[in-house]
Amino acid sequence: MGLTPAPESRTVTVDHGSGDGWVTTRLDFLVNWARANSLWPMPFGTACCAIEYMATAAPRFDLARFGMERQSFSPRQADVLICAGRVPFKLAPVIRRIWQQMPQPKWAISMGACASTGGMFDNYAVVQGIDTIIPVDVYVPGCPPRPEGLMYGILMLQEKVKRETLRDRRLRDEMEPDPQSRLYIPPSRIDELSEPFGNSVHQTRSGL
Questions:
Q1: At 4, phi and psi to the nearest 5?
Q2: Is the pTM of this model over 0.85?
Q3: In whole angstroms, what is the distance from residue 52 CA to residue 162 CA?
Q4: Is 8 exposed, middle or buried (0-12, 13-18, 19+ CB in 10 A)?
C-alpha cells in the first residue's frame, strides 16, 4: 500500500516487567488542564456582587467543585482576579496595582453590571467598566448576578484556559502604564489612597 515503517529513532520500547506506567499527551493539554482546575481567585468585592460571590463559596453552591475554593487575599498568590461590584475612580489605581502584583499566568472576571459597564452609576465618580483599567477575560452579567451566573462564568474561564497554547506569546503580553502620562499615579500615592480600605495592597495603616 506504499507504507514505510517508521524510523528506528521514533520507536519507543517499554519494559513490561518494570511495572512503570506510561501516559502520552500534549504538553498544552496537560498544562492547561492543571491550570484550569487549580485557579486561585483574588476577591475584589466592593458592593452587593460581593455578597453573591460569598454565597457561591457557601455549601449550597460549593465552589470547591471547580477547584477554586482556595481564596487568595494576597495578589502574589492568586491567578484570577474577580471584581465583584462597582469601582470608583479612587479605587482604579488600587485594582490596577493589585493586577500588576499578580504573577503570570493570570485572568480576570468582571462580575456584575457595575464592574462591566458602570451599571446604574453613570456618573463622574465610577469607572465605566474595569476593562478600561485591566484586561478582562469573562464578563458575568446581572445586577447582581446569582451564584449560578458566577459559576457559569468560571466554567467559561476554564474552557478559555484549556484552549490556550504555549506557542502564543501574546497571551501574556500587557500594556504597562506610562510614567510620563498625566493619568499615571505613582505607587506611593496608591498606597496613600488605599490606606482607608486596608486591602491587600497596603495592609498596615498609618500609625498602627
A1: -115, 145
A2: no
A3: 26
A4: exposed
